[in-house]
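Residues determine shape. Take a concrete instance:
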Amino acid sequence: MALVNVEGTGMVGIRGVDKRIFGVLEYHDVNVALISQAISEHSVTFATSEDQAELAKSIIEEEFWRELKLGLVSSVDIRAPVSIIAAVGDGMVDTTGVAGRFFSSLGGAKINVLAIAQGSSERNISTV
C-alpha cells in the first residue's frame, strides 16, 4: 500500500476540493482503500495500492496544476510502502477504551501511525 497526501493552505474551506481529488482518481480507475482528512481541511490523505500511487500523484498534480503554481496546494507526496491495520468488531461501539487500547498496542509495538480513519458506525478503526 501507499499513502498519498495532498496538502496546502489554499485548500482550507474551498468547496469541491475532495470532489476534484476523488473524481479524477475515479476517472482514471485508481482504487482508494482509505481516506483521512482533518477538520482543518489543510490536507487530504488516502491509501491506494503501491502500483497506483505514482499515477494517483501525477493525475492530482495535473488536476491541481494552477493551485500548485500559485502555492495554494503546496505538495502531493507519496509514502510507501505502508500497511493498513484495523480493529473491527460490533461490540466496539458500546465498549469504552477500545481505541485507547488499540493505539497503546501499536505504540507498544513501535508502530508509528501516519493516518487514522473511523466510520460513523464505530465498528472499525483503521490506521496506516
